[in-house]
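[audit] Reproducing an earlier prediction to check determinism. Same input, same settings, fresh worker. If the tokens differ from the archived copy the diff job will pick it up downstream; this log only records the rerun itself.
[audit] input (232 residues):
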Amino acid sequence: MPRTVHPERHFTHRVGWLRASVLGANDGIVSTAALVVGVAAAGTERHGLLVTGLAGLVAGAMSMAAGEYISVSSQADTEQADLKRERQELIDDPAHELDELTAIYRARGLDDTLARQVAEQLTAYNALEAHARDELGITEALSARPVQAALASAATFAVGAALPLSLALMVPAKAVVTVVSAGSLVALAGLGALAAGAGGAGRWRGATRVVLWSAMALLLTAGVGRLVGEPV
């Protein structure tokens, strides 16, 4: 009787691009909405809102891209340095590396004989891959991809920033603070729920934590605009 392969759903392969995309979209909405709300609360005219919002969109997208690229590149550099060191150690002292791998599997619950057999077979198949995965914790799914992270952050920031900017241009000036704040919080709640679901977590919890922090940001910037701002 043929075996039935049971497909399993995992979420770790999404970690890299999901984190960058969610962070980009969330920051795009929050920072641009807060910027628009702050200057609108100060009595800025529609043209000023447009200039401020567009400047925030471009500057934010580039800042996110640069930050992600630099951050993830540092991670990639560290991974490559570790792999280079491990590759040399496999050349210089393969016996010690085999013992090291055996100890790792023994610590995970295999008996001495089986741990040694597994270490020998994985070493024969691909020693560097075995040490990268089991000693260093570097896997294909979780490896650093700087360009992918930078592009995802910049694109999603721009898409997120376009929402509050569009709302500000579609409603009367007196309604900008209320409409942009409400519309942005609704979108952020949806984004938080979507991101949590894609990562296998609770949607309600994901939406709540995003909305709470975003509402605080909008409230503070609106307060600053009303207290110290002047029409420009």
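[audit] rerun output stored. Observation attached for the diff report: The helical segments are 15-41, 46-92, 94-107, 112-136, 146-170, 176-198, 203-228.
[audit] end
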